[in-house]
Amino acid sequence: MSVYDILEDWGITNYRIIDKKSIEEITLGASILATGGGGDPEIGLLWAYKVLNEGKDIVMIDPLDIPDDILVASPACLGAALVLTEKPPNEDVLNKAVSTLEAYMGKKLQATIPLECGGVNSIVAYAVAAELGLPVIDVDGMNRAFPELQMTSWVTHGVHASPTVSTDDRMNTTVIDTKDDDLMAESIARKVAMSYGGISWVATYPMTGADVKRTSILNSQSIAWDVGKAVMEARRSHNDPVEQILTSIKHTRNIQGYRVFNGKIVDIQREFGGEMSKGFSLGKVIMEGIGDCKGQTAELDFQNEWLNLRVNNELKCVTPDLIAILDIETGEPIRTDIMKYGYRGSIVLIPAHERMRTEKGIETFGPRYFGYDFDYVPVEKLMAKQEVK
Amino acid sequence: MTEQIRIGFDVGGTFTDGVLMRGKEVISKTKSLTTEDITTGIINALDLLLKNSQVDVSKIEMVSLGTTHTTNAIIERRKLDRVGVFRIGAPATTAIPPMTGWPGDLMAALGGKEHVHIIRGGSEYNGKDIVPLDEKAIMDAAKAMKGNVGSVAITGVFSPIIPKHEDRAMEIVREYLGDEVFITQSHKIASISLLERENSTILNASVKTVMKRAVDAFKQAVADRNINAKLFVVQNDGSVMNADHAVEYPIFTVASGPAASVRGAVYLSGIQNGAVVDVGGTSTDVAYIVNGFPRESSITVNIGGVKTNVRCPDLLSIALGGGTIIKSQQDKVIGLGPESVGYNLVKLGKSFGGPILTVHDIAVATGRLSSKLEIFDTNYVTNITAINALPASLVKEADARIKERVEIAIDQMKTESGLIPAIFIGGGALAVPQFNIEGTTEVILPNHFEVGGAIGTTIAEIGASAEVAVDLALENRNDAIDRVVALAKKNAQEAGAIAGTEEIIDVEEIPFAYMPGKKQKVRVRVKGKVFA
């Protein structure tokens, strides 16, 4: 059965075929929404090129069009980034994870859902969908990047990362069934990855079509695509990429983003030992204002991703709202794993989706979960406060 | 010793620079147009140096070459070897076959996908086999390659840690293909990151014949002139390697030009840490000196449309040079570059009676450029009236814009705040402002700045490095470092250094995050002498 048979079966006539240019736009947009994290998306991008080179179609569909009773899951990579760059996956590794998940659940998988925006995982769902002949659904579990498996809108709305099937290139397979204990799923999945040699490939978050509609960040892939297109368009027409992004998401998605700061990185304070204890790279970045912002100072907290922003000691944005630092000329996001002294960028803030801002959400990935001693305040309130002054 | 003579060449896109030195003294220098085949341009420059200096050729002890043969062949997709590709890593890695994402024309120039194989084998990070090496698959593939490829590239997963499968694969390939093919092993080329290392390895394999021909022609030209000197090629850290070694590792020469400029700047200024601003006709390269060598780039290096992890100098190129066009309206500057008149400056620039306002003209108007450089045929200005007619406010504003562009570039290359010395070199060095440059303690404009790169090639130091992954849970730290130092010294000797002259440049220890045990990478760079 091809992907088009599935669409016909569901009566879907409205779908988008993702070509090489589209996948590049989505990858760029997702990297921007990844809030400085997610890592290098290169392996995912090359995998997508490979399936396209083989003539397979990548087809994306709208979540509201899918039947309620279908089974979907998220294919993803979990483990040490360094091992991934040296040992890219076997092309069938996720087919194996998916078929094992199907056998365990007694039901066929009918679509894939991306886990997050940014890095390899943003794109793997597309490549694997094409390898399996399935559609990819225009959603994800956060519309940004976070460092742990349980940090999704799925979990905060009652869907669980269980069962998760974890595989390696030799087709070693582990079923992780932790019922409703998502922290346990995260913990076991990390240890399995280590035993495999540092990297694992998982089929996780099995859920129904109805769950997808109820708990996902809807159309998050389209938002990433719009952002990526805006930057590419700005580069072609020599416009300001940051302005182009803000105009685009306001116009097409009615999302109000903010450009709050233009500056350069003058200090990076990494907290060493953090990688050992938590598996994160963490610390603080100081930016000094340039141009209109001369004389001002911005301070960002990061733990793999940017989490909080203060400008002149005043709080401007708190996790899970989105912070991106974009290169002033190219719009390329500045990632926490490759940032350096002297990088010049504009800081852009984007409100997180409502489904990321629930009480359970703030508990799961708000500032206190990451060890900061203050409460979450929505970015639009923090910005309004400034305007009143 | 001071009687001994060294000759160096620095091939650029427009000009081939040459110098003939006796000790620290520059006896003769030339700047001639680079020819399409490159080699002819170098030989022309050699003859000019010999003619102008009239030195006794028997006194020449060293001739060295910073060249773009390799880079040009890759960029122009010309004269490349057909390459047989082995990746050792299945069942892992098959999702991304070798050369995925390469420009189609470059892949075709290497013979396409016909002799590209993913073989079962390779290692995990902890040294265990992913699976045992599939020797039969290598034999079968090698047989099919006979007569069909000129060069073979072998890349194994985690080979920078455990090269045994690459070594075995090379033995098998040699057995079936004999000495008629070149073989490149990835662990000799680059570090962790399979796809980029594999790309680097395949590119190295593809330019071996190109480099061999260049070296052979160079040897012949030198022999024809009765010069009995050691021959060297500049590598990416600005040091040299003997010419035969360069044939094995041509990919190590792709950034030899900018690297040689850094070494020249160090040599001429005596500064060991600071910025080098190399100003040409169309662009300016800003590099950073760390302990006398160019700082290495930590990001991927794109060669001919292919992402590689070949160690190259960390460079920031900006579109600013002597020929850069300044757009103006009345006495207002409305644009600075990126277009340049290039070597047509002497026809199109205002200083030469032409219609276009350039950075060079502003330098003349401010009085900074006030004498002819001996290596250029044309004087710095032939139409002073046009320059005097420029509005003073325009000159002032343009000069400020040029200065700011240079200041931002220097700042962007810093890794921490604080003031540093900057050395300005290159044919266009006088075209940009030199005083009160923000972020610097001082700007140094050394003698012979206009041929700094060529002078850099004559410093007879061999650079080499070694990189090993170690587990400090199993091995004493000092023992581990000593082991890597010994390996780096051995590599330096292979590249032409005299045993016992090696000095350590730096030792880097990089822990592997997210890994159990105390795994880390140790990288040692050394330099050694060519002459006792």
Cross-sheet strand order for the largest sheet of chain B = 3-2-1-4-9-10
Fraction of helical residues of chain A: 25-40%
**Total domain modules of chain B:** 4
How many individual helices of chain B? 15
- CATH top level assignment of the largest domain in chain B: Alpha Beta
| Overall 3D form of chain B | globular
Which term fits the overall shape of chain A?
globular
The count of strands of chain A amounts to 17
Per CATH, the class of the largest domain in chain A reads Alpha Beta
> CATH topology of the largest domain in chain A, what is it called?
CV3147-like fold
Compose a concise summary of this entry.
The complex is a heterodimer of chains A (389) and B (532). With 389 residues, chain A is α+β, with helices and mostly antiparallel strands. In chain A, 38% of the residues lie in helices and 25% in strands.
Protein traits:
heterodimer, A: 389 residues, alpha+beta, CV3147-like fold, CV3147-like, 2 domains, 7-stranded antiparallel beta sheet, 5-stranded mixed beta sheet, 17 strands, B: 532 residues, alpha/beta, Nucleotidyltransferase, domain 5, Rossmann fold, 4 domains, 6-stranded mixed beta sheet, 23 strands, 31% helix, 27% strand
If you had to describe this structure to a student in words, what would you say it looks like?
The complex is a heterodimer of chains A (389) and B (532). By secondary structure, chain A is an alpha+beta fold. Chain A is 38% helix and 25% strand. Chain A folds into two domains: 3-218, CV3147-like domain (CV3147-like fold, 3-Layer(aba) Sandwich); 256-388, CV3147-like (Beta Barrel), CATH 2.40.390. Chain A has helices at 3-10, 20-33, 42-53, 81-86, 93-105, 119-132, 153-156, 182-196, 209-215, 220-237, 241-253, 274-278, 359-365, 379-388, and strands spanning 15-17, 59-61, 71-79, 109-112, 136-137, 139-140, 164-167, 173-176, 199-208, 217-218, 258-271, 282-289, 297-303, 305-311, 314-318, 322-327, 344-350. Chain A has a seven-stranded antiparallel beta sheet. In chain A, strands 4-3-9-7-8 form a five-stranded mixed beta sheet, with helices on both faces. Chain A has a three-stranded mixed beta sheet with strand order 1-2-5. Chain A is globular and about 60 Å long. Chain B has 532 residues and is of the alpha/beta class. Chain B is globular, with a radius of gyration of 25 Å. The model of chain B has no long low-confidence stretch (mean pLDDT 91). The interface between A and B is large, with 41 and 39 residues.
